[in-house]
Amino acid sequence: MFSAISASSVRSRGAARLAAAVLVSGLVAMGSLAGAGAATADEAPQHQGGAAATLDGLKTYDGAVLHTDGKDQQLPAGLFEMTVDGGGKLKTYCIDIHNPTQDQAKYLETPWDQTSLGANENAGKIRWILEHSYPQIDDLAALAGTAGTGPLTEKTAAAGTQVAIWRYSDNADVDASDPQAEKLADWLQQNAQDAAEPKASLTLEPGAVSGKAGEKLGPVTVRTDAASVTVTPPADAAASGVKVTDKDGKAVTTAVNGTELYFDVPAGASDGTASLGVQATTSVPVGRAFAGVTKSQTQILAGSSDSTVAATATANWAKQGAIPALTAEKNCAKGGIDVTATNSGDEPFTFDLKGTEHSVAAGESQTITVPVGEDEAYDFTITGPGGFTQTFKGVLDCKTTGSEGPAPEQPSSQPSAASAGGSTAGSTGDLAETGSSSATPMIAGVAIALVVLGGGAVFFLRKKNAAATGE
User: Fold this and answer.
1) Roughly what angle, to the nearest 10 degrees, separates helices 123-131 and 154-169?
2) How far apart are the C-alpha atoms of 402 and 416, rounded to whole Å?
3) Which residues have C-beta within 8 Å of that of residue 449, sequence separation ≥ 6?
4) Is-contact 219 262, C-beta < 8 A?
5) Which pLDDT value is given to residue 404?
6) Angle, helices 154-169/140-147, rounded to nearest 10 degrees
7) Tell me: the pLDDT tens digits for 401-453?
8) Phi, psi of 180 (to 5 degrees)
9) 3-state secondary structure the chain
10) CA-wise closest residue to 82 among 284, 295, 355
11) How far apart are CA 322 and CA 384, in angstroms?
12) How far is it, in rounded angstroms, from Cα 325 to Cα 107?
């Protein structure tokens, strides 16, 4: 089994600032809360929380044949590998056969409903297949005996499993080239049962809160599969006086699933923004979806070493006026991006979104769905009073390629030379185990912020007050 890579040696103040960001569900967002003074950026690429990884390529595979439009296409079928930002390795299968992989693509752990799995009535059967085949079942003799296939190798077991998954993820007419792999695919398909979506490895809900200085802002609830997580306070907590506490005001440095966290903002604090982070080293649950930051073949998790998972949340406060908190996430059911604006101030928050003015009353919240076409890149900016701006960017990828209209000539599992490189057998050890371990004591999330740059991110510009010196 892989051991997680610690980023405890990365401790600089500048790197710590990079680790602080609000979560925005795999989107890239850039915000500016401009007050009487100038604004500067604390940039931190992030996502809704969990693991972020880079695709290493197709590593353990055999052949398959895709039958489409009267043609037979030969293609490889098997396990991909990913390197987790901050430490760890993942093994994944494809769930979008006609969408090509991109060399060294960045991927983010993503809820099913923000991928093609959300509208797939067979999504639960795919998870069952993952739990009952290779690499979760790494005793190949036992797997062959149960499925009645005859001898299996790692390559043919991976190919048979991928073929069975494609039949449910893409409704594909596809067969394994190897007879034993084909028998495994048939057995898995015929015996698959519905299984529930696994819980996220780590998220914070909500990803942004707001309120008045002198209050405890929150709660922000920890949702995690790990035994415990490390809580990191705002990077400039010593100067600002902002603390991370429980509801009673007691400082919190570690948390478990269900823990409620608060930003305790001093009464005299200047108007501003701060972020907290949580992090753990844990096995990511089998069946979690991984979506590309840019358009790249969606993956589903088949195995995980102990890996770094992280999440962040942001608080915005002021003494008076509108005090907004904005988040956004993909809404595949409606074909767009849900932008949620919450106003914890004492005046309405009026803002412009795509040429339309919206107003959120004091103490209220409003969600607006911005329509976006499938596979379309989007880039829109919200503007409000006092120089407020926040931009959301990304790509909406909610359906399997070819699900509406003819499939492309080239199936996605035929990867580019770069993504198919390396050995054809898994050479990295056992990724079959799942579960969790205690949190690591330092922020490997800094490494995540550095590696995921350019996608699935949120950027918040700190609100400055003219009276604050040195800002």
Assistant:
1) 170
2) 19
3) 15, 18, 19, 21, 44, 45, 46
4) yes
5) 54
6) 50
7) 876 545 444 444 444 333 332 223 333 334 443 333 333 333 334 333 333 33
8) -70, -40
9) CCCCCCCCCCCCHHHHHHCCCCCCCCCEEEEECCCCCCCEEEEECCCCCECEEEEEEEEEEEEEEEEECCEEEEEEEEEEEEEECCCCEEEEEECCCCCCCCCCCEEEEECHHHCHHHHCCCHHHHHHHHHCCCCCCCCHHHHHHHHCCCCCCHHHHHHHHHHHHHHHHCCCCEEECCHHHHHHHHHHHHHCCCCCCCCCCEEEECCEEEEECCCEEEEEEEEECCCCEEEECCCCHHHHCCEEECCCCCECCEECCCCEEEEECCCCCCCEEEEEEEEEEEECCCCCEEEECCCCCCEEEEEECEEEEEEEEEEEEECCCCCEEEEEEEECCCCEEEEEEEECCCCCEEEEECCEEEEECCCCEEEEEEECCCCCEEEEEEECHHHCEEEEEEECCCCCCCCCCCCCCCCCCCCCCCCCCCCCCCCCCCCCCCCECCCCCCCCHHHHHHHCCCCCCEEEEECCCCCCCCC
10) 284
11) 10
12) 26
CA pair distance 229, 226, nearest whole angstrom: 7
What pLDDT was estimated at residue 403?
A: 60
pLDDT tens track for 196-243 = 999 999 999 999 999 999 999 999 999 999 999 999 999 888 888 999
Beta partners for residue 107, in sequence order: 53, 292
Token output for 135 = 């690499």
Residue in the structure block whose two tokens are 């001093």: 266
Cα angle 378-381-384, degrees, rounded to a multiple of 5 = 160
How many other β-carbons are positioned within 10 Å of the β-carbon of residue 131?
A: 16
Q: Please give the C-alpha separations between residue 35 and each of 326, 347, 392, 464, in angstroms, as whole numbers.
A: 17, 16, 21, 6
Q: Could you tell me the pTM of the whole model?
A: 0.81
**Tokens standing for residue 256:** 């478990």
What tokens were used for 81? 């590998």
* Identity of residue 107: Y
The span from the CA of 451 to the CA of 83, in Å, is 11
pLDDT confidence tier of residue 62, bands split at 50, 70 and 90: very high
